[in-house]
Backbone:
């Protein structure tokens, strides 16, 4: 049996598995598996190098299934490679199986969750960058759909890959002509895709995606031009089963039992071939040992400092003693203060330009390979990457995100630049820790917490300089809070975070002069919230709670506190209740009801 | 004085105004105004047609300042055109002025808020499409920065414009080489931008952006190739002031008073020219009268129906009697059921393919011209357009967004396809109404409410078919709720929405058989919440409230209720508290604690 024959047989087996498992599950996307079966067979059983016994091997080539709805094909590939038992694929989409409807890293060979289209190439850029940083000869392959090339993020990723000359990155575009609901924009026009990838600086090969010798030839060209390579493959959706081939209306639709029988009749019986024998092992390679080389020094601040500046200092200091740390920035590093890191450690600094979706995708890819990426932009603009953040959580990605310039306290630039919904965006993210430091030391402490936390952490920083509250070595663990004012006579508790902590302290001073003692809590850990301290404070102050935050009413600190206290206290919630406008920072804090005088009034207004 | 001389003088005036107003404000972005001054002078005072007395004129060409940080240039243009008094520009960035740091439609000539980069071209596509739908000869111009071309959304918009042959759309790219923190990716390489736009199907002209005769020539080519036109203009950031020209570090930095004096010395005194005399009026045009032609018929459903299907029926029915309604869809119209509209009214249906950011941007552009766009995709994927939704709110855009397939109740497709954070995304959006129907009639009622509401509305729909609860003509106003079970003996209240209303009713039945009466509220209007009914119910049931929602804990119905009730009731919150996985819908509702049995247990667990 020639290699070509063997690969053809493997491809047929992949098709049969994909059809069987989706019919068994009663849902799923078989036709998109059939279009990519030949491309995937050649990739896994001739081109890629990996060891089926090692899911995490720095020597191995990596694979990202960007078109995540082709999950059955992926499970079939793993079964053929001997990674999972063949019988297990029939558990597809069951609650008890890790072979989910779209890939997630519950199955350890899956490095990132996919299924929201157009994200895989960014992750591939991150993985390929990590391989290069480690000096590995390994490559990264991303299998994409044609439909998902309509997502702008694909072109953000294409830019980044070309810009960095990632010749170890290959995008395989399965041009099967049909989207979910309609033919795609360019249908079978391979030249349209080729022109785009060329214009974005890639080497491009077009190929018939069902002719195995041609596919093998195309793969041989990968990386030869010193650029990332795009293989534009013309394929047929449903290929191999005459009555579904190239037909609209068969996306996300499994065959019925009788249709499956007919299809299997056309494909023939499961061809005999030992696919495992065709797996190519990688050449041995040991990645450099990365980690913490010593304690992270913290800065002793002497005067008012913006938390964004202290954050920048801390990430740079961390990077100097931890070779896993990478900084990414969306062309605002002189505002987020990632420029400190960029200046100190250029080799682990990534300017992603104004492309926040790609920034988060690259960060996820770097995290896959053990790096600890810190990605920063304005809090307002991180909303651009909401879907990528969501998918990062489903990837269990160990990434850190910083949103600077939060709230109306930025002042004159106006609402488009104010992050007023970022807490509501990050709090629902499963497992995400949300930290919001009120002073420079807290910012440094939050960076330390973020670095040591396994999983996603969001840090919210403030534009203006703020007074110092904490000593140099104060710890800021996730789930903690700081009680800044406290007496036995406290008549209410003010819960604040970030910029509003300073307003709360001022209000407490004013109230104190009037003879009203109040407790002040810095709830720097917005999530998890320090529910114990807050409940105790509410109880000890007669259940009178003011929450003040530079954020819209929904989804932020105020609702978190209301939920935690439900039934146990009155809560007055001061926050930005209308669409703000340009103005001076203090003017805006006052206009939108966040300043000390409003806090004083709220405390005075409680039912006694 | 020749036209060329006049335009040069106007450009110098624009430069002087931009420098003065930013120095006066003490913040802002003068250098980006200087690079675009010549392009803008030629556009406003020779190429574009508009009547300075009419901010909303269907005959007029439209202008979108995508590079929103050049706001001072825009205010200067309006002043020169006689739209606003020249003296008013010195109020830039003051709290009392509508001339904000980045443009917002508080100033009526600004049609959309900009300042989050890379969004203007999508809006331009929407406006140009609206002009074409209306049969206007008017054109749309979008002034873009080079840096923002790194945003993928630009290429989503480029695709859409080419696909639809929008020869009435022109993108002017101000290639001034410098971003905020670094030189841009392509610096002054105009060919790099040209190649990209060409590959995306545009006619491209490259030009020296400071040579007025060449600029005028370039503008003459707009639309001639039957394609959208991109003018790629090489410019110098800070042009005209020697000590800031082409220098990194001058983004977002006004001149100090002494620097301003030096700059004005170089630019000379304010040149004498009556710019107003150069404004070209449009040829008269009356847009077709659009509006409601009759009552919107509602469907009488006879059996279990998915809310997404009823939503699709309702939008199609609405579109048939209201010529303002447009449907947009991100290649999932057979899932959102926008395919009903597409089949009935193809001329007002827009397939945007898999490009959610562009979908929302186009919707905003259509709304600018008086259309009522309904844009739909999976609730999970609308997170892709979070930043665009945010900016739409700052644009006061009258758009309607539908997120289908909300929650774990979608079943086997897995978490990447489940919208579990969409309520937390839309609730903070200023002014946004959030509706979540529980049955087919409610879905139709919510569409009717959305159509008649001026402003953004989000409608959340469910994948599986659900039982019928309401009669055909039941109204579902914003801010309302429906009390579905009620007695004098109610011992608790269950607040639910969408799919969980059915679980709540089942739980109420079971509890009733055990002798425990409970109230059930369908809180279909998640925002504004019907606080009055909820407070009354809590009071009448001894302050025992269960909230059950198919959403993550933060930012959804549960926290909304907790905030509303703060201090007045115990709240048990049933929601999805971990990262879900694939499984059958009912299996997942049960596994994640949302099903009737969990509600029963929650009611029984209250402190008495």
Residues:
């Amino acid at each position: 049996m020639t290699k070509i024959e063997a690969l053809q047989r493997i491809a047929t087996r992949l098709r049969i598995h994909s059809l069987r498992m989706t019919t068994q599950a009663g849902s799923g996307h078989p036709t998109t598996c059939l279009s990519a079966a030949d491309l995937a067979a050649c990739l896994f059983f001739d081109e890629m190098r990996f060891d089926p016994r090692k899911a995490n091997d720095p020597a191995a080539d990596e694979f990202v299934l960007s078109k995540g709805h082709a999950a059955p094909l992926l499970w079939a590939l793993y079964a053929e490679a001997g990674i999972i038992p063949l019988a297990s694929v029939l558990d597809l989409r069951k609650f008890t199986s890790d072979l989910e409807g779209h890939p997630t890293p519950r199955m350890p060979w899956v490095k990132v969750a996919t299924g929201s289209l157009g994200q895989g190439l960014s992750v591939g850029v991150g993985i390929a960058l990590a391989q290069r940083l480690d000096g590995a000869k390994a490559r990264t392959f991303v299998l994409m759909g044609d439909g998902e090339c309509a997502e702008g993020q694909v072109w953000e990723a294409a830019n980044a890959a070309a810009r960095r000359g990632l010749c170890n990155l290959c995008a395989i575009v399965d041009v099967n002509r049909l989207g979910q609901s309609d033919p795609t924009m360019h249908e079978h026009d391979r030249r349209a895709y080729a022109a785009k990838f060329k214009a974005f600086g890639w080497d491009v090969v077009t190929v018939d995606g069902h002719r195995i010798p041609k596919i093998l030839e195309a793969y041989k060209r990968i990386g030869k031009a010193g650029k990332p390579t795009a293989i534009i493959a013309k394929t047929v959706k449903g290929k191999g089963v005459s009555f579904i081939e190239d037909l609209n209306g068969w996306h996300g639709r499994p065959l019925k039992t009788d249709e499956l029988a007919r299809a299997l009749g056309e494909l023939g019986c499961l061809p005999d071939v030992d696919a495992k024998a065709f797996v190519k092992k990688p050449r041995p390679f040991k990645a450099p040992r990365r980690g913490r080389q010593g304690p992270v020094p913290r800065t002793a601040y002497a005067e008012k400092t913006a938390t964004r500046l202290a954050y920048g200092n801390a990430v740079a200091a961390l990077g100097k003693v931890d070779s896993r740390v990478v900084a990414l920035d969306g062309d605002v590093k002189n505002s987020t203060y990632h420029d400190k890191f960029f200046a100190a450690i250029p080799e682990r600094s990534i300017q992603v330009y104004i492309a926040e979706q790609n920034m988060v995708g690259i960060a996820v890819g770097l995290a896959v390979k053990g790096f600890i990426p810190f990605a920063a932009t304005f809090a307002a603009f991180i909303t651009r990457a909401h879907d990528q953040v969501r998918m990062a959580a489903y990837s269990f990605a160990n990434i850190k995100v910083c949103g600077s310039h939060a709230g109306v306290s930025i002042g004159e630039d106006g609402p488009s630049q104010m992050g007023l919904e970022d807490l509501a965006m990050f709090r629902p993210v499963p497992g995400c820790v949300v930290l919001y430091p009120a002073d420079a030391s807290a910012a440094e402490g939050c960076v330390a917490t973020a670095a040591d936390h396994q999983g996603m952490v969001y840090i919210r920083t403030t534009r203006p300089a703020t007074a110092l509250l904490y000593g140099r070595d104060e710890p800021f663990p996730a789930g903690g809070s700081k009680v800044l004012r406290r007496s036995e006579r406290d008549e209410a508790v003010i819960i604040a975070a970030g910029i509003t902590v300073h307003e709360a302290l001022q209000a407490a001073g004013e109230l104190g002069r009037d003879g009203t003692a109040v407790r002040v809590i810095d709830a720097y850990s917005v999530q998890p919230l320090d529910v114990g301290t807050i409940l105790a404070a509410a109880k000890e102050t007669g259940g009178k709670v003011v929450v003040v935050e530079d954020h819209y009413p929904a989804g932020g600190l105020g609702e978190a506190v209301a939920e935690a206290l439900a039934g146990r206290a009155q809560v007055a919630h001061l926050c930005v209740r209308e669409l703000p406008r340009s103005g001076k920072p203090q003017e805006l804090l006052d206009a939108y009801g966040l300043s000390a005088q409003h806090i004083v009034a709220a405390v005075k207004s409680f039912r006694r």
About this structure: Chain A touches chain B through 112 residues (CB under 8 Å).
